[in-house]
Amino acid sequence: MSRKVLxxxxxxxxxxxIAREALDxxxxxxxxxxDISVLFMDDGVFQLLPEQAPGGLPQKTxxxxxxxxxxxxxxxxxVHAPSLEARGLTRDExxxxxxxxxxxxxxxxxxxxxxxxxxx
Amino acid sequence: MKFALAIYxxxxxxxxxxxxxxxxxxxxxxxxxxxxxFFYQDGVHTGNQLATPPQDEQDITQAWRxxxxxxxxxxxxxxxxxxxxxxxxxxxxxxxxxxxxxxxPEFTLSGLGQWVEAVVHADRVVTFGA
Lengths: 120, 130
What we know:
Structural class of chain A: alpha/beta
Radius of gyration of chain B: 14 Å
Strand order of the largest sheet of chain B: 4-3-2-1-5
CATH class of chain B: Alpha Beta
Structural class of chain B: alpha/beta
Number of helices of chain A: 4
Radius of gyration of chain A: 14 Å
Largest interface: A-B, 19 and 20 residues
Number of strands of chain B: 5
Oligomer: heterodimer
Distance between the termini of chain B: 23 Å
Order of helices and strands of chain A: EHEHEHEHE
Strand content of chain A: 15-25%
Number of strands of chain A: 5
Order of helices and strands of chain B: EHEHEHHEHE
CATH class of chain A: Alpha Beta
Shape of chain A: globular
Largest sheet of chain A: 5 strands, parallel
Strand content of chain B: 15-25%
Distance between the termini of chain A: 24 Å
CATH architecture of chain B: 3-Layer(aba) Sandwich
Number of domains of chain A: 1
């Protein structure tokens, strides 16, 4: 049985373990063949910035795992446009290909289409 | 209704941990089914039976243990996030040659696949501490 599951990622990549462990959960869910969508929202949009170099912290970089999402058949990738705007970011400077930009209204629609919402 | 609960919140640190416990207790009182409780991220500390809170504070680990025994709950601690936080059962302590184990016997160490399976079979999934 395949369920429609949306992962909403709302935290910055390196300030806590949540972004990394969210990605682990996301990839595990993908391996089990669920119908996954991913929404980057709030500080989660910082996960999408290019040239992340957390080696000095030291931490492992998240962006290489994010770019592997299509290999796991995770191709429905969304970013909440007002979250970008509030942080002075634009769609063009983000590292991930295939991102669809959503308004708050679009996000509400996306939520309503899912079987389950998983928030990280 | 079938519920699956994911708990990321550390016990004794954030309110979400107590809220999750009270939510689970209320679900069961009202006759719902809790098909699995999955502790992830800092929530794995809930399984640490060595936690020793002061007597006038709620003992969250003991409360989960009692709830699990009373309702034969499937209470799973994510193995990957638990091991790195020092939450080990006897088997893992031996495997990694650690001097002690601390996971309460009502909890099971297992992988994210257990969580995905619960998500697939649940009518409702509720996350605490995200």
